[in-house]
Amino acid sequence: MNRVKKLYFRQIAAVLIFSLLVIGSVPAESMAYVVGSNQPEAGASTQARAADMADVQRVLESKIVSGKLKEMGLTISEIKSRLDKLSDQELHQFASRMNSLAPGGDGGLGVVVAVLIIVILVIVILQLTHHRVVVQ
Questions:
Q1: Gap between the Cα atoms of 53 and 98, Å rounded
Q2: What is the C-alpha separation between 123 and 35, in angstroms, rounded?
Q3: How far is residue 38's CA from residue 43's CA, in Å, rounded to a whole number?
Q4: Which ranges of the chain have pLDDT less than 50?
Q5: How far apart are CA 81 and CA 5, in angstroms?
Q6: Which of 105-114's residues contact partners 24+ apart within 8 Å by CB, and which partners?
Q7: pLDDT, tens digit, for every residue of 72-90?
Q8: Range 101-107, long-range pairs (CB < 8 A, 24+ positions)
Q9: By the 8 A CB rule, do 56 and 96 touch?
Q10: 121: Cβ–Cβ under 8 A, 6 or more apart, which residues?
Q11: How many C-beta neighbours within 10 Å does residue 62 have?
Q12: Is 130 exposed, middle or buried (0-12, 13-18, 19+ CB in 10 A)?
């Protein structure tokens, strides 16, 4: 009976380890996006440019970014004139790169969640096998 129990719990442990590896290998941010048709709608490019410009303005209005730009000797009017000179594609690329930056980092939360899940699984497995961990 004890032999069957050990085999059963080893199989459960193997399945749990494999499932954690699979879950851990999934990226936090998916790279999927909607692909449009080849024919652009009327006014779609102006709306996209306005949305990209709003994203860029939002980032430029932050205290840290505006302070750094002032240290470099750039004024708000110079920045706006340079942004107006960008093509739609360049502005979109710039806005998407700014949106992909993670201020402050986001890697810490994923590590904490993974460690908590592993600890909980170890506790559950120890409880199921009626084992105790004694620290002396």
A1: 12
A2: 46
A3: 15
A4: none
A5: 73
A6: 106/28, 110/28, 114/20, 114/24
A7: 888 878 888 888 888 888 8
A8: 106/28
A9: no
A10: 16, 20
A11: 11
A12: exposed
Residue matched to tokens 């107006």? 84
Alpha carbon dihedral 82, 84, 90, 96, in 10-degree steps, equals 90
Per-residue model confidence (pLDDT) at position 35: 66
Residue at 17: amino acid letter: I
Mapped to the 3 state alphabet, what secondary structure does the chain carry?
Answer: CHHHHHHHHHHHHHHHHHHHHHHHHCCCCCCCCCCCCCCCCCCHHHHHHHHHHHHHHHHHCCHHHHHHHHHCCCCHHHHHHHHHHCCHHHHHHHHHHHHHCCCCCCHHHHHHHHHHHHHHHHHHHHHHCCCCCCCC
Six-digit token string for 124 = 């559950």
Q: Using alpha carbons only, give the angle 106, 110, 112 rounded to the nearest 5 degrees.
A: 115
Rounded to whole angstroms, the Cα distance separating 72 from 110 reads 36
pLDDT confidence of residue 22: 84
